[in-house]
Each structure stands twice: as structure tokens, then as C-alpha cells.
TrEMBL record:
CDD domains: AAA. InterPro entries: AAA+_ATPase, AAA_lid_NorR, GAF, GAF-like_dom_sf, Homeodomain-like_sf, HTH_Fis, P-loop_NTPase, Sigma_54_int. Keywords: ATP-binding, DNA-binding, Nucleotide-binding, Transcription, Transcription regulation. The lineage of its organism: Bacteria, Pseudomonadati, Pseudomonadota, Betaproteobacteria, Burkholderiales. Gene3D superfamilies: 1.10.8.60, 3.30.450.40, Homeodomain-like (1.10.10.60), P-loop containing nucleotide triphosphate hydrolases (3.40.50.300). GO terms for molecular function: ATP binding; sequence-specific DNA binding. PANTHER family: TRANSCRIPTIONAL REGULATORY PROTEIN (PTHR32071). Residues 293-331 are annotated as: Disordered. It comes from the Bacteria. Residues 344-584 form the Sigma-54 factor interaction domain. Pfam families: AAA_lid_14, GAF, HTH_8, Sigma54_activat. This is Sigma-54-dependent Fis family transcriptional regulator.
Length: 694
């Protein structure tokens, strides 16, 4: 380990094979975050007082289910110079129980309630690394990134929510005792016990299926559990249950279990509460299951989703709804709903038509999310689980569209696959065919498509018997199809055939849900929890406060304001790509996206929309540094502590940024790396900035 440490200090990279892969990744993250292995870490001090009380309040359920399990485990390990820890999803310690002697020792390295053991602050450690890697693991002695934690041996296992998000971590820390494999087994079993008891009590109005390969395994911590709505839509499950049935978290709220298992829900319910039953999976494997019916409740109206509830957040289980009128979890359309009323209107219209054969024509500018919307309609309708086949008519060369759509017989044309092809239309059989940019379909093919739509039969190119097809049709275009009809570029009869109902999706600049939509997109790029994590415990010192005004978005407030004002000609696609680039340019230790994470052309385009900045130079270095200095958490923290703050009369942005840089360099005694880290910019930017000022 000493050699690995030396190598890291000298080369800045982890020595290959020195550590288990997960720990090696973690060491590298810790190094990249700017943590010095011989430092005392970057803790911002413990969360205390009312803030700590609120933290406990937010995690009340997890605590309630974890405490008895921790007490039980502690009784098994008492006297072994160790402790059990429960941390939240951000690695902040909430509850500990352990031997007095060891608790005292642990206090000395801040292993105590209220302290964060996030990797960013403490480097590789079992709690923070189990959260980052989403897996149970051990970190023993010198494997800890900070040398001062080398006396600890820790085993930690994440506790997952029913939708696969990390809810918290259970850790066993101690001296040599905790380094043994059984400590990891204990931590893992504790996490499974917490998940299972939480899951059982959390969904009283849902159907619960308990599973195990052996009947005797039911009701043990090893059992799998999945939860369904009374209509059979998957709500979630424990990791074991999801694994046994080959489900992924992406299936939650969209998959009907009977489509996957070929078991009727009614039949499953009929077996509820009886002795364990055999359940055969599609591959022939046999499991034992016990089905629990929802508990009867008084009828109450279905709760509605809050309009600005972040769309990709797992919806909470319905509370207070009856098993008969119970609403299922939000479907795919509801999960795309980030609160804009124009978009919601389109979704309402589409939803009414999903159970009818009426073809939808989705209109809207390029990049507004027409295909995303069509896919969500499909996933929310009766054909969910069947194929969704999207064809971009503008992207396929005209000469190939016919073969691509209708398929071809073996050897139908030069360059064709020898075995022939069924064509995309037949691939959509049973599901949905989505024709994007339908306005670009060549007129001759429009005639063939019309015939398929009328006859519901496809005849492959080069001959062969026609094959019957059954699909729902959705089309989309950003072009004015009625104009194309008027000047003869699009067949009128086909236009009427595809336009059973036309709905229009709003351009991004017309939407009122910018923040919620951006958060949804960021979640996709930052990974589960991280987009919200920047908010931290809302009142934790430092990070959360630095983003005041930005709501839940980990974006510097002035940048967020500019993003909101921008007119987004490329719509959601453009926003998505800007956020993706910014996430990629963000250094691992940077909690917020700032101006410095934008490409030059984007920064320039945004600034053209900024009333007060129109005259500033385009080069932008000064601007991004100033922005970083005023919005980066560390800088803001310093400002709050009484250090220099830019005032309105301090000069141009370029001067401001130079002053910030100079003062930061003074504070850190000229250490460029440290200054760059504090300002949230790269060392190269610091040097460039110094050069441009001289
Ligand atoms: N609701 C959404 N949540 C997250 N990302 C979205 C959403 N809607 C659209 N996007 C992003 O925007 C991109 C473009 O969406 P989509 O392809 O559906 O737009 P479109 O209107 O069909 O575009 P075009 O007219 O160019 O075919 C997607 O790849 C995705 O990255």
C-alpha cells in the first residue's frame, strides 16, 4: 500500500493492480478531487442542531427500520472494539451504536453523527465509496485514502429504495475484527433486512410478491420482493427480487409484470395469502412465491402528482387510495411531465387516444422532444412492452427507405443481406411504428405506405407473400405538412390517414418548466442522486447555501438565469447537449455547473442575451473566473466568512476576475493548484488568466 501511495503522489495515478478495482477507482476520484492523502480531509464540519434534526426528519423512515436491525447486529458484535453506523444517501452519519472505547477513537477522525464521509471530503472509505460504487465493500487499514484513517477497518453496504436509489448505508467499523469477511456479510445482511422490512410496510396498498428458489427461503433476508400496482404495473422491488425476475429499475412504473411473466395478475391474486406457489419463469426456472394482496382501505380520491414534481424522481407510493380505485404509479408520460401546461395539455390529449386506433401526428420544432413524447405514449398505452420502432424518414437515403420499411426478399437487390429482411414495419408488429420527419418521405413511397396502412399487410421488395401487421401509428414532423400537401409534395390521402389527431409540443422557450426539465436532464448525466446531491442536506454548511436561488438545480444562479432567458433555437436537444458538455467539463470536486463549463460559442450565445453583459469581451476567461469566484461553493463560503466580495463598483468583469484570482493566490500562498481548486477552474485557466493580465 505504501508503494501505491508513493506512486499516486508521484504520478497522480493509481498503481494498476495495487487495489481492488472499486477502491482503485475511488482513490483516483479522491486524488482528482484535490484531496491530499496526508491531509485531515475536507470536512466542512458536522451538521448540528436544528439542521441535524431536519436531516433525521428527512430520513425518519430509514432510521426507524434501521435502528432495530443495528441493535440486533450490535448485540452479536458487542465487545469486539467496533461500531455500527447508519449514514444517509449523501454519506452523512445519522446514527451510531458501538463499544465506548472504539467510539472515542472514532471521534478523533470525525467518525461521528453529523459528519459527512462523502468521498469528496474523506477520500476512499467504506461509507462514501459504497455510495459512490452502489455496492457493498470493505476498506481495510491502508486502503483508506487518508493516511489518518489507516487504523480503521470498515465494511459497508448500501440500502436501496424500491426503485434502486441509494437511500443510505450501513457500516461496521472497527479494528482487526471488522476486517474479516464476516463483517461484510453482516453489513450486507443488515442492509437487506432494512430494505425488506421497509418495503413490506411502505406499500400497503399494492400487491407484493415474495420470491425464493426454495419455499423455505421465503420470509428470510434472502427473499426477493417485487411490488405491483393493483393493475399489475411494476412499482419496484428489493435488489434480489428485481434480479430474480430479470427486471431493471427502468421497468418501474412502465412494465406490466404479466407481459414479462405470462402470468395473469388475477390468477396471482387468487393465490394470495395461501401456501407458497410455484412460479415458472420464461426460461423454465422455477421459483417459489407468496403473494400478498393490498390491505383494504377506505375509498379516497386518487392523489395527484404535484405539477413541478421532478419527473424522473421515483413517485412515492400512493397513500390513502383504495385498492379498487388505486392509482398506479405514474406512467411514462407522467414521468416526462415536468410541469409545463402546454406539454401537459398535449399529454392529456394523447392519453385519451392511446386506447383507440386513432393515429397521432406530433408537431413541433426540431428538438422539442417529439420522439421522446411518442415513446412515452407507447410506454403508457396498451402496447407497452411490445416493440417501439422509430424510423427517421429524413435520415435514411431515399434509395434505401423502401427496403428499410417494407423489407426485401433474399437477393432482392445488390448489396442486400442474403437472408432478406422483414423490414421495420413488420418489426413493429404488435407495437408502435413511429415515423419521424414523415414530411421527408418520397412521394412514391407515400403511395406504398398508404396501402400498408389501409390493408395492414406488407409485401417485401422483390416479391414474396404479403404478411399481416398490426401496429399503432404515430408520426412526427417539424415541417408544415399542410403546405406540403397544398403544393403536391405530400399525398392528401396519406395526410388524412396519419393525422387522426394532431397535437403540438411547445418549443423550449415557450415552456414554463425550465428548471424542472433541466433537472430531469441533469439527473440523466450526473447519475442517480448527484443532481440533487449538490443541494446537499438543504441546510448543510457550505454547498447547499452556495446555490441559493437556484432551487434544486446544481447550476450557478447567474448562469441559470441566463439559461432561462436564452431562446434555445435547438430546443430540448440543445439544452441537453449543453448540460451534457457542462457535466463532462466539471471537475470531480465541483458541485455546481458554472460559466467555465460551457463551450465558448454557447457562452457567447448566452451572453448576447444577457442585458448587462452585451459589451463585455467574447474571450470570456475573465467572465468565467468571476462567475466561478462568486458562485463556487468554496469561494462563496469564503465570502460569507468575511473575505473579499465583489461589489457593484469594483470594476469590469475582467478586473474583477483578476482581483479574485490575486486574492485567492495570496490566501493560498501562491499555490496555483490550490487556487484553481478553490475557484473551481483548471490550473491552465489560472496560468492563462495570469498571462492575460500581465
Ligand atoms: N422530456 C425530456 N427529458 C429529457 N431529455 C429530453 C426530453 N425531451 C427531449 N429530450 C432530449 O432532446 C433530444 C431530442 O429529442 P427528440 O429526438 O425526441 O426531439 P424531436 O422533436 O423528435 O427532434 P427532431 O424533430 O429533430 O426529430 C433527446 O435525445 C433528448 O436528449
Amino acid at each position: 500500500m505504501q508503494q501505491a501511495r508513493r506512486h499516486l503522489l508521484e504520478q497522480g495515478v493509481v498503481l494498476p493492480s495495487a487495489l481492488d478495482d472499486r477502491l482503485a477507482r475511488s482513490w483516483q476520484r479522491s486524488w482528482n478531487a484535490g484531496l491530499a492523502p496526508d491531509s485531515r480531509g475536507e470536512g466542512q464540519g458536522p451538521v448540528t442542531g436544528p439542521s441535524f434534526a431536519r436531516l433525521l426528519q428527512r430520513n425518519a423512515q430509514l432510521l426507524a427500520f434501521a435502528r432495530p436491525v443495528m441493535d440486533f447486529i450490535y448485540r452479536q458484535v458487542r465487545g469486539h472494539h467496533s461500531m455500527l453506523v447508519l449514514a444517509d444517501a449523501h454519506s452523512t452519519l445519522m446514527h451510531t451504536v458501538g463499544d465506548d472505547g472504539f467510539l472515542d477513537q472514532a471521534q478523533r477522525v470525525a467518525l461521528r453523527c453529523g459528519e459527512s464521509w462523502h468521498e469528496r471530503e474523506r477520500g476512499t472509505n467504506a461509507i462514501g465509496t459504497a455510495v459512490a460504487e452502489r455496492t457493498a465493500l470493505q476498506v481495510r487499514a491502508g486502503e483508506h485514502y487518508l493516511a489518518q484513517n489507516g487504523f480503521l477497518h470498515c465494511s459497508a453496504a448500501p440500502v436501496f429504495t424500491a426503485q434502486g436509489e441509494v437511500a443510505g448505508v450501513i457500516d461496521i467499523s472497527g479494528d482487526a475484527f471488522a476486517s474479516q469477511p464476516h463483517a461484510l456479510v453482516l453489513a450486507n445482511s443488515a442492509a437487506r433486512m432494512v430494505e425488506n422490512s421497509w418495503l413490506k410496510s411502505r406499500y400497503p396498498e399494492h400487491v407484493r410478491i415474495h420470491l425464493h428458489p426454495q419455499a423455505e427461503g421465503l420470509d428470510t433476508p434472502a427473499e426477493g420482493i417485487v411490488v405491483l400496482t393493483t393493475e399489475g404495473v411494476l412499482v419496484g422491488g428489493n435488489p434480489e427480487g428485481m434480479r430474480m425476475l430479470g427486471l431493471s429499475t427502468g421497468d418501474c412504473f412502465s412494465l406490466r409484470l404479466e407481459d414479462r411473466l405470462q402470468h395473469r395478475l388475477a390468477k396471482l391474486l387468487a393465490q394470495a395469502g395461501k401456501l407458497p406457489q410455484a412460479l415458472y419463469l420464461p426460461d423454465g426456472e422455477r421459483l417459489h412465491m407468496r403473494v400478498h394482496r393490498p390491505e383494504p382501505r377506505v375509498l379516497r380520491p386518487a392523489p395527484r402528482a404535484r405539477p413541478n414534481q421532478p419527473a424522473s424522481a421515483p413517485s412515492r407510493p400512493a397513500t390513502g387510495a383504495s385498492p379498487v380505485a388505486a392509482p398506479e404509479g405514474p406512467d411514462a408520460l407522467a414521468r416526462c411531465d415536468t410541469g409545463d401546461s402546454l406539454w401537459q395539455r398535449a399529454a392529456r390529449q394523447a392519453r385519451r387516444l392511446l386506447h383507440t386506433p386513432v393515429p397521432l401526428l406530433i408537431l413541433g420544432e426540431s428538438g422539442v422532444g417529439k420522439e421522446v413524447f411518442a415513446r412515452a405514449c407507447h410506454d403508457s398505452g396498451p402496447r407497452a412492452g411490445q416493440p417501439f420502432v422509430a424510423i427517421n424518414c429524413a435520415a435514411i437515403p431515399e434509395s434505401l427507405i423502401e427496403a428499410e420499411l417494407f423489407g426485401y426478399a433474399p437477393g432482392a437487390y445488390t448489396g442486400a443481406q442474403r437472408s432478406g429482411s422483414p423490414g421495420r414495419i413488420r418489426e413493429a408488429d404488435g407495437g408502435t411504428l413511429f415515423l419521424d420527419e414523415i414530411g421527408h418521405m418520397p412521394v412514391l413511397l407515400q403511395t406504398r405506405l398508404l396501402r400498408v396502412l389501409q390493408e395492414r399487410q406488407v409485401t417485401p421488395l422483390g416479391g414474396g407473400p404479403p404478411a399481416g401487421v398490426d401496429f399503432a401509428l404515430m408520426s412526427a414532423t417539424h415541417a408544415a405538412l399542410d403546405e406540403a400537401v397544398a403544393d403536391g409534395r405530400f399525398r392528401r390521402d396519406l395526410y388524412y390517414r396519419i393525422n387522426g389527431f394532431a397535437l403540438r409540443l411547445p418549443a423550449l422557450r415557450e415552456r414554463s418548466d425550465f428548471d424542472a426539465l433541466a433537472l430531469r436532464i441533469l439527473r440523466g448525466f450526473m447519475g442517480p442522486g448527484e443532481a440533487d446531491e449538490a443541494q446537499g442536506p438543504a441546510d448543510a454548511p457550505g454547498a447547499g447555501k452556495a446555490c441559493e436561488g437556484a432551487g434544486a438545480l446544481p447550476v450557478a444562479p447567474d448562469l441559470l438565469a441566463a439559461l432561462r432567458r436564452y431562446d434555445w433555437p435547438g430546443n430540448v436537444r440543445q439544452l441537453s447537449s449543453v448540460l451534457q458538455t457542462a457535466c463532462a467539463l466539471r471537475e470531480p470536486h465541483e458541485a455546481f455547473i458554472g460559466w467555465q463549463h460551457l463551450a465558448d460559442d454557447v457562452r457567447e450565445a448566452l451572453r448576447r442575451h444577457e442585458p448587462g453583459l452585451a459589451g463585455a469581451g467574447v474571450e470570456g476567461v475573465g467572465y468565467d473566473t468571476a462567475a466561478a469566484a462568486t458562485t463556487h461553493p468554496v469561494a462563496k463560503e469564503r465570502a460569507a466568512a468575511g473575505a473579499w466580495q465583489p461589489g457593484p463598483d469594483t470594476g469590469s468583469l475582467k478586473q474583477l476576475s483578476h482581483q479574485v484570482l490575486q486574492r485567492t493566490l495570496q490566501t493560498v500562498n501562491g499555490n496555483v493548484s490550490e487556487a484553481a481548486r478553490r475557484l473551481g477552474i483548471s490550473r491552465q485557466t489560472v496560468y492563462r488568466r495570469l498571462r492575460s493580465a500581465s
